[in-house]
Design goal:
Blueprint lengths: L3 H31 L11 H8 L1 H34 L5 H9 L7 H11 L17 H25 L3 H9 L4 H12 L1 H17 L2 H6 L6 H11 L3 H28 L17 H28 L2 E3 L3 E4 L15 H29 L5 H12 L6 H12 L13 H11 L2 H12 L4 H8 L4 H12 L1 H17 L15 H10 L3 H33 L8
Antiparallel strand pairs: 1-2
Helix pairs in contact: 1-12, 1-14, 1-15, 1-16, 2-12, 3-4, 3-6, 3-9, 3-13, 5-6, 5-13, 5-23, 6-9, 9-12, 11-12, 12-16, 14-15, 14-17, 14-18, 14-21, 18-21, 19-20, 21-23, 22-23
């Protein structure tokens, strides 16, 4: 009979091997490629010097920093005001505003760029608003990245603003502090970690985004598109590897800074805290209601324009309704089959990823395995958050497309797309799993062990039902992200495994904007439908399988 400790260590080793082959070894391969010449010999730092001496690549690095910094300032400022209105005021329609802010998460990152072309492009109905400036380039990139990163910032800042101690505000009022001083000395310090996390997250999302620059970047180079150009356009794999490292360094730095800030964060809400009572302030409520309304209209306009434009005959001259743009079978690249490939990718990623991630988190948090192995596993599970999708995809080329690798047969199959997607989106579901598991007392496992019940029985009969809503949320998160991802699969698809998000990139590059908008709309509707179904299933299962939480009457 195998002991629980041996079985736990064995399963942990299997998951560790999965992470090693899916993350660690491919990243090592990209580091090796960056210091090799075209013959595979060691070249030292020659490739890095060539990168610095190439004006286009050095300029792309500067452009990435500039657009990401501008996007971060705009996004965090708007998101803080928006989240403050939702969480700290009595303005009407707060739940509606909260829901609207999350819609961009359900859309491919390409969709904002496509809508901006319809609105501000050469035939855009609002092109005069730019006063002669082109939307193709830094203006369009910043607008698209703000739209795409906005919900992530709102989520983080809403969480930060949700927790506050009423006693601090009462003390400030008793000292006759002005509202501005209270905001500066109480509210902002309480949100310090949230603001830092939001800024670092938005900067990382903007710096590594491939979708928006690929659609609306024009001749304005950034690092994420330069990787694609170096590898696909010029077959310069060494320079692609160096570009990937320069794209990877800021994200790793942001990740490290965020971890340091998290460890130094001292909560302002103690165990004896009194929840904040939000009072009505007519002037502030009205001002933030108007701001939230303007932001919500902008988000809906950005996302809705592409959908509407895909339903008309010829934007903006003939606005009569037509479904011609949805006749994908007439387009090159697979027609509706690429959409069904997206379904296969999303379903497989969600199903395999949910089992793998939750089981790994359970063994790390509750298992009896080796403590050092569990700590190392937890560290590796956090790393995908710092790896851009295009970097991960490029690393897979170097690692899996190697005749010496026994896993070379995985290359150009749906399996490698699923693997890259699971790894790319691994960290957030891992954190969700740990959070849910930390709410369960270790007494469950201790009681099961005292009764000589195997740990997997306790897991299946106790832990799983208690965490089922979280598991459903993880499945939905992985499905939606895999359905709309571009960066994680842009280097790895073949003619048989091409997915809808990649087809949108190819159609847009070929000038087929209306079909691109149509397919983007289909993906948005699909993601929204699955997300709503997830919410319904999660609530039903929570009521049926977690009835033990209800008080006895």
């Amino acid at each position: 009979m195998i002991s629980s400790r041996t079985l736990t260590n064995s399963v942990l080793c299997l998951i560790a091997a999965f992470l090693a082959f899916g993350l660690v070894f491919p990243l090592a391969a990209i580091l090796v490629k960056s210091v090799q010449n075209t013959e595979g010999m060691f070249a030292g730092l020659d490739n890095f010097r060539r990168f610095a001496d190439t004006p286009g690549l050095a300029g792309a690095a500067r452009n990435s920093f500039v657009t990401s910094a501008i996007s971060t300032v705009i996004t965090v400022t708007l998101a803080f005001a928006y989240a403050y209105g939702v969480m700290r005021t009595r303005m009407p329609a707060r739940a509606l505003f909260s829901g609207i802010a999350m819609i961009p998460i359900l859309a491919p990152s390409l969709l904002p760029g496509i809508s901006l072309i319809y609105l501000f492009g050469k035939q855009g109905i609002l092109k005069d608003v730019l006063m002669g400036h082109s939307v193709y380039g830094p203006i369009g990139i910043v607008m698209g990245q703000v739209t795409f990163a906005f919900p992530h910032a709102v989520l983080i800042l809403s969480t930060a603003l949700a927790a506050a101690d009423q006693r601090l505000y009462e003390a400030a009022i008793s000292l006759r502090a002005t509202p501005a001083r209270i905001f500066r000395t109480v509210t902002l310090p309480g949100c310090r970690y949230g603001l830092t996390s939001a800024a670092l997250s938005v900067f990382t999302i903007s710096f590594t985004d491939f979708g928006v620059p690929s659609v609306i970047g024009g001749n304005y180079p950034v690092l994420s598109t330069q990787i694609y150009l170096q590898v696909v356009g010029r077959y310069d794999f060494q320079m692609g590897a160096v570009t990937a490292i320069f794209l990877l360094l800021p994200t790793i730095l942001s990740f490290v800074v965020q971890q340091i800030v998290q460890r130094r964060n001292d909560g302002l809400v103690s165990s004896g805290a009194i929840p904040l009572r939000v009072v009505r302030r007519p002037a502030l409520d009205t001002a933030l209601f108007l701001l939230c309304t303007a932001v919500a209209i902008f988000l809906l306009a950005i996302l809705g324009t592409a959908g509407f434009a895909s339903l008309v005959k010829y934007w903006p001259y003939n606005l009569s309704l037509s479904f011609n743009s949805y006749q994908f079978s007439r387009m090159p690249g697979g027609g509706w089959s690429v959409y069904f490939n997206s379904w296969i990718l999303a379903t497989a990623t969600a199903s395999i990823g949910t089992v793998m991630i939750f089981l790994g988190a359970y063994l790390i948090e509750k298992g009896e395995g080796n403590a050092g192995l569990r700590a190392a596993m937890n560290l590796v599970c956090m790393l995908p958050l710092a790896v851009p999708g295009v970097v991960l995809g490029l690393s897979y080329i170097f690692f899996f497309n190697n005749p010496m690798n026994p896993l070379v047969g995985l290359y150009s199959t749906m399996g490698i797309l699923v693997l890259s997607s699971v790894i790319y989106f691994y960290t957030v579901p891992h954190i969700m799993s740990l959070t849910a598991l930390k709410h369960l007392s270790r007494e469950f496992e201790a009681t099961g062990a005292s009764l000589k019940v195997p740990f997997y029985v306790t897991f299946l009969r106790v832990t799983l039902p208690c965490c089922l809503p979280t598991i459903i949320n993880i499945w939905g998160y992985l499905f939606v992200n895999a359905m709309t991802t571009v960066a994680a699969v842009i280097f790895l698809y073949s003619a048989r495994t091409q997915v809808a998000a990649i087809t949108i990139v190819n159609w847009n590059t070929g000038g087929a904007l209306a079909p691109s908008a149509a397919m983007s709309t289909v993906l948005l509707i699909t993601s929204a439908s699955v997300w709503l179904l997830r919410a319904w299933v999660s609530s039903r299962l929570a009521r049926r399988m977690q009835a033990w939480k209800e008080p006895v009457t």
